[in-house]
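wait is this the right file?? whatever heres the structure
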């Protein structure tokens, strides 16, 4: 393929920026994303190991990265753009996860789980989830009027929910949280995430072995996999462990950060928060807007081209890496009016916070339900919820795969 006329020179002014790019404001995308959208083609950024990858920041281009089967999500392919040494170690040093498979292989394992995460089934958890939220708030309010809401609420509730859904005991939640942190931290180095994965894998394998001895292991995810996939020979025990490992980590770490960061955003936008309190019917659109605005999974669109393919006017050659980031797409002014402003009443909101295409987040219905129950209940029961420190003193997760805050000190 030939490049369009004038293509060769159009990215030279922005070549070689180090990635990840810094944010000048913790609530906004990196400033460079807006600059990159003005280019005809795509700029390249430099990764930690000196490799380069294209950066897609326009909504339409990011959609192409997610949807076009010419792009592979497999970290085992040459040219795959690892955004940190920890991710390279994790994604190449252990059994491939279904989320990082392509084509039929990915689809086969995903279909084993799809019905378990459909909206009607997930909505059956609402009553139990409401009890989890109320019980945890009762506990906090009995203890006093201040807490680290991240550690004592927004991390606890998703941990409970994913434990129930998967079929693992919540009593082990501290273990889940410890290994999840090691897996999600981009500064962890190449060894720590693998060791954490091995520990979690051994834990899950032990529980699968126990379920295999039961006549009826249950209707949760692990029990269903035992009955419908492992016993009939459709799925190996090793692959089942790999599936549940990613579900367990993603199922509580990402949502915990999403709820915590959403609360920070709401408290920093008092007029929007007041409107939401006054009109709870805004909650569905508010959740979609908070998902768009926060875009918690920071680096979910890493791909490598399997053949020469155009993204907009940019030719990406086979073997070249590309980053199609939801945060960048969700702040594109050609799609979202005033994209850097929070508008809880926004109705035209085709955000891709859960990615897009074949690898769109499997657990998005659960995430939405958890946000709905948690935010609705907190705003109702804690009308005076407020930060106890200035936002400038909060520590944000700039180096984590799931963006948010490390701690959320609040009073009510």
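ok assuming it is, sequence goes like this
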């Amino acid at each position: 393929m030939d490049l369009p006329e004038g293509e060769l020179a159009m990215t030279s002014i922005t070549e070689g920026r180090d990635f990840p790019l810094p944010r000048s404001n913790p609530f906004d995308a990196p400033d460079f994303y807006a600059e990159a959208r003005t280019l005809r083609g795509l700029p390249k950024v430099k990764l930690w190991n000196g490799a380069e990858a294209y950066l897609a920041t326009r909504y339409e281009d990011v959609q192409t990265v997610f949807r076009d089967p010419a792009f592979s999500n497999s970290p085992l392919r040459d040219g795959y753009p690892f955004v940190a040494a920890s991710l390279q170690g994790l994604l190449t040093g252990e059994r491939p996860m279904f989320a990082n498979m392509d084509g039929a292989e990915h689809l086969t394992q995903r279909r084993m789980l799809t019905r378990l995460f459909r909206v009607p089934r997930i909505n059956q958890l609402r009553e139990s989830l409401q009890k989890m939220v109320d019980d945890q708030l009762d506990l906090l309010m009995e203890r006093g009027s201040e807490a680290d809401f991240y550690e004592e609420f927004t991390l606890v509730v998703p941990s409970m929910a994913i434990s129930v859904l998967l079929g693992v005991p919540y009593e082990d939640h501290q273990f889940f949280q410890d290994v999840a942190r090691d897996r999600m931290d981009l500064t962890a180095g190449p060894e720590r995430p693998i060791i954490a994965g091995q520990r979690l894998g051994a834990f899950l394998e032990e529980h699968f072995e126990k379920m295999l001895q039961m006549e009826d292991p249950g209707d949760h995810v692990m029990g269903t996999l035992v009955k419908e996939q492992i016993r009939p020979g459709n799925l190996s025990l090793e692959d089942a462990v790999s599936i549940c490992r990613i579900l367990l980590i993603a199922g509580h770490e990402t949502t915990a950060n999403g709820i915590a960061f959403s609360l920070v955003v709401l408290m920093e936008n008092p007029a929007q928060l007041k409107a939401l309190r006054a009109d709870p019917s805004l909650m569905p659109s508010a959740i979609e807007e908070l998902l768009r605005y926060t875009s918690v999974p920071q680096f979910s669109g890493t791909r490598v081209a399997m053949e020469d393919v155009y993204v907009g006017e940019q030719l990406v050659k086979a073997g070249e890496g590309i980053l199609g980031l939801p945060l960048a797409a969700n702040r594109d002014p050609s799609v979202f009016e005033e994209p850097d402003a929070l508008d809880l009443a926004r109705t035209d909101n085709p955000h891709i916070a859960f990615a897009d295409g074949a690898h769109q987040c499997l657990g998005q219905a659960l995430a939405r339900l958890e946000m709905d129950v948690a935010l609705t209940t907190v705003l109702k029961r804690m009308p005076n919820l407020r930060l106890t420190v200035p936002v400038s003193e909060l520590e944000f997760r700039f180096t984590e795969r799931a963006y948010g805050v490390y701690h959320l000190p609040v009073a009510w």
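Residues 7-411 form a domain with the Cytochrome p450 fold (CATH 1.10.630.10). so i think its the right one actually
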